[in-house]
């Protein structure tokens, strides 16, 4: 270690209120105590943000040297902090475009043959547009192939309604996807997008909301993101009608043909 590095290490220790021989446990305990005290969400003092940043920087500087001591960090974040792995923003499984707020969704598909019905799932991480298309595709297959067994008429309407409502969303997993994007965009210096995604995770009040608010607070310019934009995931009435049509088309055609005979 160079003399300069040793001197700045002493500064980092001082910011955390520790002596230079403090153990990793002591460093972590001091860090947790201080971020609770200075976090801008709990401390309205004007200097709180600057203090919070200094504490975070000092802690990072002291722990990055020994990555094993930072195991409480989310793995993605630790990799970023040590600069070893740069995360790429996630892409939609279907169209391959960057998906800012991807969701992990599965869409039930029913296929029937006389005495039995099979349910399988079409699953993936989708952007809102592709999720709508996948849902419709699942309903179309279900509507064409799902009715034709004893169980079919019971299972098909359920599956169609579920797809019309946007499929079965794994919200916990989706939040992790958004958190992944948040880390990737923060790494790329995209402060506005990072703040937007952080805000989204924070307001979900699920796991990771503390991590998200810590990241928002550590951004260079701490501006609250605009929240009045349209939600790309909000359901549309036309979708429900399309799904009902997909479901009803085959049996109605069959009835029509039967009457003609
Ligand atoms: Zn897509």
Automatic annotation (TrEMBL):
| Pfam family name, one | DnaJ
| Coiled-coil residue spans | none
Concerning SUPFAM superfamilies, the annotation shows:
Chaperone J-domain
The answer on whether this UniProt entry bears the keyword NADP reads: no
Keyword check for Chaperone, yes or no.
yes
Q: Which domain of life is it from?
A: Bacteria
Q: Which Gene3D superfamilies match?
A: DnaJ domain
Domain J intervals = 11-84
Q: Which UniProt keywords apply?
A: Chaperone
Q: What is this protein called?
A: J domain-containing protein
Q: Which InterPro entries match?
A: DnaJ_domain (IPR001623), J_dom_sf (IPR036869)
Please give the organism.
Sphingomonas colocasiae
């Amino acid at each position: 270690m160079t003399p300069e590095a040793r001197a700045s290490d002493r500064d980092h220790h001082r910011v955390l209120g520790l002596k230079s021989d403090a153990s990793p446990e002591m460093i972590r305990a001091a860090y947790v105590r201080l971020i609770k005290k200075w976090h801008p969400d709990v401390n309205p003092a004007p200097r709180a943000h600057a203090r919070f940043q200094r504490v975070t920087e000092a802690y990072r500087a002291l722990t990055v040297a020994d990555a094993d001591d930072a195991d409480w960090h989310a793995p993605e974040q630790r990799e970023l902090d040590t600069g070893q792995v740069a995360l790429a923003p996630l892409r939609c499984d279907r169209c391959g475009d960057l998906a800012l707020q991807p969701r992990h969704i599965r869409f039930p598909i029913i296929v029937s043959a006389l005495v039995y019905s099979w349910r399988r799932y079409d699953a993936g991480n989708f952007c809102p547009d592709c999720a709508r298309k996948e849902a419709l595709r699942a309903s179309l297959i279900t509507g064409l192939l799902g009715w034709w067994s004893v169980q079919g008429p019971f299972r098909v309407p359920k599956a169609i309604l579920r797809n019309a409502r946007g499929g079965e969303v794994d919200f916990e997993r989706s939040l992790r996807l958004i958190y992944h994007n948040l880390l990737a965009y923060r790494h790329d210096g995209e402060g506005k997008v990072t703040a937007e995604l952080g805000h989204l995770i924070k307001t979900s009040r699920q796991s990771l909301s503390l991590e998200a608010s810590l990241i928002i607070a550590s951004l260079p310019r701490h501006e609250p993101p605009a929240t009045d934009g349209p939600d790309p995931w909000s359901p549309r009435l036309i979708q429900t009608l399309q799904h009902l049509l997909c479901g009803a088309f085959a049996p109605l055609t069959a009835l029509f043909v039967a009457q003609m005979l």
